[in-house]
Structures are given as C-alpha cells and as structure tokens.
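Quiz preparation item.
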C-alpha cells in the first residue's frame, strides 16, 4: 500500500486540479485516507536508497526516521545502511534528526553514524533487561489479570475513538 501512495505522489505537489480547486497532494490524501502532509512524506521517502526503503517496508525501520534520512545525500544514506548492518540497529527519530543536522553542517562521518547508532543498541539492551526483570516474578494469576486489564483498556480507547458510550449509543 505504501508503494502505491509513493508512486501516486510523483506529480508536482503544487499542481491544482482546476475542476475541484484542490492541490494534487490533497486529492491523493483524500483518496488514500491520509493528510496532505503525510502524502508529502510518502513522496519524500522515495529519495531513500533502495536498501533503506526496504528497511521501512519490512518494518525494521520506522517511517518517520526514514523521512528524516531521505534528506541526506545518497553516499551518506549508504554509510548509514552500512552502519545499520554492522550495529544491527536502526535509528530512532531523534537520532535521524541529529544525523540530518550533522549532514547539513557537513560533519556527518561514518564514525559519527556508528556512534549515534551505537547509543540505541545500549539503550535497547537496558530496557529489554529491565522489562524482563520486572516480568520475571509475575505469577500466572498476575499475567491473566494484567492481560485482561490491557484488553479492557484497549476496548475502552477504541470505543472512545468511535464515540460509542458504555450502553452502545453515540
């Protein structure tokens, strides 16, 4: 689906449909159920090298960080891909923004990229260990209760999103 949205947005974004008076991105957004800004993001990530775009498509890299990386030169994007392969980490949004700023100032190097990506590797490990540690003492009863409460919370949020009250009325 993302591929078709990206291809659909290849027109000049400022073109106006003279029948409706809307910009192309507004029309595409309405057809796809996205905002004009989101359509612009889909168009922008077409500037990623194929290897990074594959990471977005397979879900291993977030869409928003990918948009930030699409502003980088192709050579820099390839260096990031090499660092992703060596560190086995993809950049978070804040890391992608930092890399974009370094690129704009001409200071983005392979060492900087690996250093930035190395930060996430350590933080992910810390979080996973502490998360596992917290759940290690959970009994079956605690697990069932927690899962039921989470399910109830999801249902409540879904109802609130759709404007449905507890008795089923709007």
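Solution:
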């Amino acid at each position: 689906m993302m591929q078709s949205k990206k291809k659909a947005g290849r027109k000049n974004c400022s073109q106006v449909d003279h029948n409706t008076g809307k910009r192309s991105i507004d029309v595409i957004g309405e057809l796809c159920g996205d905002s004009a800004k989101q359509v612009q993001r889909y168009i922008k990530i077409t500037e990623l090298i194929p290897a990074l775009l594959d990471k977005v498509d397979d879900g291993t890299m977030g869409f928003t960080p990918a948009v930030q990386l699409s502003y980088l030169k192709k050579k820099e994007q390839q260096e990031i891909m090499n660092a992703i392969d060596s560190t086995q980490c993809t950049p978070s949004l804040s890391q992608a923004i930092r890399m974009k700023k370094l690129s704009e100032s001409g200071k983005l190097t392979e060492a900087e990229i690996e250093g930035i990506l190395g930060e996430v590797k350590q933080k992910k490990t810390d979080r996973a260990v502490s998360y596992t540690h917290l759940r290690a003492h959970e009994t079956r009863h605690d697990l069932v209760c927690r899962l039921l409460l989470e399910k109830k919370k999801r249902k409540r949020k879904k109802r609130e999103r759709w404007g449905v009250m507890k008795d089923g009325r709007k």
